[in-house]
Amino acid sequence: MKKNNVILQTTAKVTFFIIFLFSIHIFFAGHFAPGGGFVGGLLTTGAIVLLLLAFDLETVKATLPFNFTVVIGVGLLLSLGTAAGSILFNVPFFTHAFAHFELPLFGDTELHTAMIFDSGVYLVVVGAAITIIQSIGGDE
Amino acid sequence: MEFVWFIFLPALAALFIPTLFKRVTGIHTGWFVLIIPIVLFAYYSTYLPLTASGEHAISSFDWIPSLGISFVSYLDGLSLLFTLLITGIGALVVLYSIFYLDRHKEKLGNFYVYLLLFMTAMLGVVQSDNIISLYLFWELTSISSFLLIGYWYTRDGSRFGALKSMMITVGGGLMMLGGFVILGILGDTYSIRELISGLSNYSGDPLFTLAAVLLLFGAFTKSAQFPFYIWLPDAMEAPTPVSAYLHSATMVKAGLYLVARFTPIFAESSVWIWLVSGIGLLTLMWGSFFAVKQTDLKGILAFSTVSQLGLIMSLLGAGAIAYHSDDTLFRFAMFAAIFHLVNHAVFKGSLFMIAGIVDHETGTRDIRKLGGLMSVMPISFTVAFIGGLSMAGIPPFGGFLSKELFLDSMVALKHFELFNFDTWGILFPVIAWIASVFTFVYSFYFVFKTFTGEKKFDKLPLKPHEAPIGMLISPIILAISVIALFFIPNVVGKWIVAPAVMAAQPQLYSLPSEAAVHVQAWHGFEYIPMWLTVGVIAIGALLFTSIKKWQPVYGLQPEKLSLNALYDGVMTFSEKGMNKLSRFYMNGLIRTYLLYMFAFFSVMTIVVLFAKGAFKLDMSSLSPITLFAVMNAIVAILGTGMVIMSKNRISAIIALGAVGYSVALFFVLFKAPDLALTQLVIETISVALFLLAFRHLPALKTHGETKQNKLVNGIIAIGVGLSVTLVALSAHSNKLVASISQYYKDTVHTEAGGGNIVNVILVDYRGFDTLFEIAVLSIAGIAVLGMIRLRLSRKGSDDEKE
Amino acid sequence: MELLMAIVAGILFTAAIYLILSRSLIKVILGTGLLSHGAHLFILTMGGLGGSAPPVLLDGVTEFVDPLPQALILTAIVISFGVTAFILVLAYRTYAVHKTDDLNSMKGNDEHD
Asked: What is the DSSP string of B718-731?
């Protein structure tokens, strides 16, 4: 079905980016302030759902040409890889490491392997949620 | 090298068999399998000098150390004797099976996997010192026997026989486990050696006799003693190599092994002595008498096996008597038992193989159709002749020697004065003699009915001819051993039998040479067993020649009164009864099952809370109620009410969403920003999800739910709700241990380098949970995709067209 | 406050169980939704509701709410989302195949076993 709701579609285009950027912010904030992979992933999903509601399945598929099942797999591998990577350094499975770096623009920044793990979580959440919604929505 | 691993070698080899069977089609899979028992036999033979000097070897590894359970390979005389039987006869049987089972027609992959599995199980049984792992291997032998009997699973008889043997032996095994557990508790160890050395601490316990009886259930079911023997004749549905191996030479002897192994512990119990010797003798008599009734060649052998196992069992019982008397008269029994065990394995193995050959070459095992095969199958006849005469106890074959020792031991029993043996002891030699007469009769019946007499070749399904040489090798080797055993009994006695006797009676001997009995064929005219043997031959020959006149006696026993009828009755009754019972409470309705669960859950929780005094309400630690929270609670409760009451799908979904948002507000109120954020987003997405999915679902209907059902549902629901409330309050009020959260708070910055404790718990402290959680989420996503895209339904493609 | 929340959780559970026991597949789904809400509040209440600050490190704050129940609930929320989605699809696929959402008529018959 082709929807034609100008107000919704116009606002959706703008709000999508706002929500999406906010979700990225929430995701990175996660280690020190409320947020993290789960919330970030869900917010991104929410943004995409908004697009879905305003436009239709095909439009969204064309705009975001990802295969979301692959996203699930990438996320899982990323998380598992982070956890398993610690074995290479002869420390127990799932040992995280972190350090502070002086980065241009950001200043004193803490880089943490937990972040990589969390991005795996983020990808799985987005992938799984969108897969579910696309499947149900696309089922006639 | 830890030789305990050798127990698992056959099972490991079994992993490769299916591949070999599929890929290497040019060679019979049996040739590969043959390597295993030969290697093991050669390896274990190197321990002979060790055990012959009365020593033992031990190797173990811990399996569940916290429970004291380990795998042990304990090689003393007794274990080694059985080990050599298992690997030696095993090698011959595999060789025989190569020619018996056709590689193009049979599922050899399955067959050899089962057989190798059995080999591991059996080695485990006879080498385990730990009774728990012994039990494990014991049941594994039952299972592999089940698989082997059911090998031709398309036949009704095979399936029936397999199930029957499984029911009886596993049932007995469970009883035995009970005995083991009692022993383990009494002796505070699972090691047999420690149980023996600590015997005086617990032998007076009233449970001691119970342990003995339970253990004997295991031994009697496995070794086919009366009245449990009924599974063995039905087990003859197995391929003949299996019958020769499991059901005569090895597995059925596991019960004998068990009794011999536990003799040092239970010998002082009079119940043990009476049961083992009494049941053994009864089985001997019963088996030998009914063997003559059989018309199936393997049936005769099955009953003869039952009877011979009874013979050895009664000798083991008599062997325990040696603990109660210093008289050397009683010392023959254990030696005779072990010696006859070896003899039996050898001659019965050869006879089974001959029965298989006859079946293979003539197409029938019915003794009424057979006759006069001697002229066409001379080699088979010779082997059968040797084996049969050894079984009958006639010189110059090994069976004669052990039979005389047996009669000697039974005669000695009338001199025993404890436990009422002075009154009843005389029965032992009498019954033993009568049974020996019937043993003579069925041995001759088996050999001469088949190979001599009238030729009826035209009635046979196949034209008989001598078996291929490969199939004859194994029985010939066994037949030669039968003769060898007669001429070198004392060599065998010194190297194999005496060490085993010492292992079974460790308190009596310190060196195997003390346990050795000098075996000789000729004792002079004063020797009573010699005259008994002469009597057996004379009366036996008379009965055999007149067999046609008295065989109809067997027809007198009505079929309904047999033990088999009893077994069948019990089986059908329990199957039907159980079916009815389970149909009664499992009516196929999900609601019923959920009712059971919820009712059980709430009743158990509430009862335990109050019965154990666990319910506590600590008013002092409650936090103050705020107005916001009360208002929010009202919203949540109203929303919940709406979900229940709503007659319309959309309003129900919206109400559910309202409850979700109020929960999110609760998270805000209770200082859980992460939860609040997540809940808000999830709720939004969920509502979208519900709306999408409900397009495909029908309108809300009640389906005419009855008032009564609603009432029951309501009561159960309130019960669950109540128990949840009570548990929440008690859990809050009873802080038995300090929360681990303090640790998280202290280390979150220093150790984990983070500030948001909740998030750090998720990605770091309890990262494993999260890893699994995203795995679950992925599975849910892929499952949804699968259900929708793949259209999994029973109708398959029909559904796609809709 | 704990008393109030325990009662709210109890009511949510009661409603959820009542719906789950009904014959309509849709009501069962709604019930599982309520059940997860109830469970989240239940866990939160057990951990205690007092506390002056969220479990996030900030200068000068030393008294936090117990973070462990929150971490557990966060996991539970996401899992229950996955499960709800799964049950929804299962339900409507079942409906598509059987043409009914009456659980009583979906009871398996004896011929299968």
From this structure: HHHHHHHHHHHHHH
